[in-house]
Design brief:
single chain, alpha/beta, Arc Repressor Mutant, subunit A, D-Maltodextrin-Binding Protein, domain 2, 3 domains
Length: 299
């Protein structure tokens, strides 16, 4: 009987393709080109002696040999990584892709980068700053290993999170036009959780509103509010220079709290995975003065 020695790297790529949902997403997650990923899958099929995937319309599904291989592949990778961790192999120059909302780019992010550099000098952080919905999609598609998210928590998400207040915000020079019964709003461009919460709150309160400016990022949104053309809704996770919360005189509806939470790609199982996740939580606790025994995350 011919003995076949399966290549662990090929098995890891195979599992990543299945979990990521496509060759393209898996190649990006593993920092490979798509042709290289396709070549690896052909080599693994040669070792297996059978096709692992079949096309069903636009979808790609596993064949019976592919399903059988997947279970063994996960076990082999787990055993391999266990050996590496137990024997303490030095993992130099590990690349970790992390996402962070722009609300933290001047506060939490510099602290996290400094702490990560000090605690894990072998890890190189590649940070993407953007809107939470984009970051969550990046984790789901395998382009990000870890993301900090800020916004409404999906109803199906039962993991622990940290509540964050959402407030109406204005420039100190802004005043309502007494001749108008329509509230001017400065909003993030759709889709945006903050935008949905603000407009729904006004509609529920029976208040008229109109969008006077749409921004793609926090900088342009803040600039528009500073121009005194309208107000907006922002999470109170930092001080926004030149802006202040709207007082009760405006008689606006109270906004609900939103969630600060983390998402981790399920296949990110490197040695630094747990450590970096814990570091984000530790930095957040120190930043907000939260005690060590208060559960805030579950990833």
């Amino acid at each position: 009987m011919r003995r076949v020695n399966f290549d662990t790297q090929l098995l890891r790529s195979f599992v990543t393709v299945v979990d990521a949902g496509s060759y393209v997403a898996a190649a990006e997650l593993l920092n490979m080109t798509q042709p290289a990923m396709s070549q690896q899958m052909r080599r693994l099929e040669d070792q297996l002696g059978a096709p692992m995937f079949r096309r069903e319309g636009r979808k790609t599904t596993l064949t019976s040999p592919g399903e059988l291989l997947l279970g063994y592949a996960r076990r082999i990778i787990e055993l391999n990584d266990g050996i590496v961790e137990e024997l303490g192999f030095d993992r130099k120059h590990e690349l970790v892709h992390i996402g962070m909302p722009e609300h933290f780019s001047e506060t939490l992010l510099p602290i996290l980068i400094a702490e990560a550099h000090r605690e894990f000098p072998h890890v190189q952080l590649v940070v993407k700053v953007g809107r939470s919905q984009t970051l969550e999609e990046g984790v789901a598609e395998g382009r990000l290993n870890l993301a900090v998210l800020l916004g409404p928590r999906p109803l199906e998400d039962k993991t622990p999170h940290q509540p964050v207040p959402l407030h109406w915000v204005r420039s100190s020079g802004f005043a309502l036009n007494p001749a108008s019964d329509t509230l001017p709003l400065v909003l993030f461009r759709s889709p945006c959780g903050f935008r949905n919460i603000a407009t729904q709150a006004l509609q529920t309160a029976g208040m008229k509103w109109r969008c006077v400016h749409e921004g793609e990022d926090l900088a342009t949104l803040r600039a528009a509010v500073l121009a005194n053309i309208g107000i907006t809704a922002l999470p109170m996770v930092r001080d926004y220079a030149g802006l202040e919360t709207v007082d009760a005189a405006f008689q606006l509806p109270q906004l609900p709290t939103i969630a600060f939470r983390m998402r981790k790609h399920p296949q990110w199982r490197s040695r630094s995975s747990h450590d970096l996740t814990q570091l984000v939580e530790t930095v957040w606790r120190k930043f907000n003065g939260i005690s060590e025994d208060a559960a805030i995350f579950g990833v």
